[in-house]
Amino acid sequence: MKLVVGLGNPGKKYEGTRHNVGFEVIQTLSKRHAGGAFKSKFNGQLTEIGAGGQKLMLLCPLTYMNRSGNSVRPAFDFYKLTLEDVLIVCDDFNLPLAKLRLKGKGSAGGQNGLADVIQKLGSDEVPRLRVGIGTPREGVDVANYVLSNFAKAEKPEVDLCVERAASAVEDWASQGLTYAMNLYNA
């Protein structure tokens, strides 16, 4: 069993924002694999799918981005997982729009939700899939940028990227991190 966590903020106010691209990847995976209804568990919304010969628990924390670890840690403990069995999917404003980057460890790189997960799990060796949301123009406040919606012209590229990110999760689950990194980080 593996745990895939999509980071974002709960509520209609944040739907479609750059910061919620992790939630979108989880929703895409659930639809692709006929996941059941999401249930409230671990301070989040949880469903189960079968993908790549693996049982995947899909989790969207409802703790707000900066407290994502308060959802991830209880799920991690409950399922008695190792760090290698967890994948965090999050936005990254340091990556060009629609660029994917899989890594097995490292710093949070300014992503506060990922930073909280790393802190709560006590290790930076948790695999993550970063989804590029584009870099804010000079003078634009980062917080406002990540909480903004994608421009209409960006949306088709972002939709394709979310589909590719879901495929990256499937390949991570079935073939492992190194395989997925080689395929999607190019």
Automatic annotation (TrEMBL):
Gene3D superfamilies: Peptidyl-tRNA hydrolase (3.40.50.1470). The record marks N9 as: Discriminates between blocked and unblocked aminoacyl-tRNA. Pfam families: Pept_tRNA_hydro. Signal peptide: none annotated. The record marks D91 as: Stabilizes the basic form of H active site to accept a proton. The active site is at H19 (proton acceptor). It is found in: Cytoplasm. Its EC number is 3.1.1.29. InterPro entries: Pept_tRNA_hydro, Pept_tRNA_hydro_sf. Transmembrane segments: none annotated. Belongs to the PTH family. Hydrolyzes ribosome-free peptidyl-tRNAs (with 1 or more amino acids incorporated), which drop off the ribosome during protein synthesis, or as a result of ribosome stalling. This is Peptidyl-tRNA hydrolase. The gene is pth.
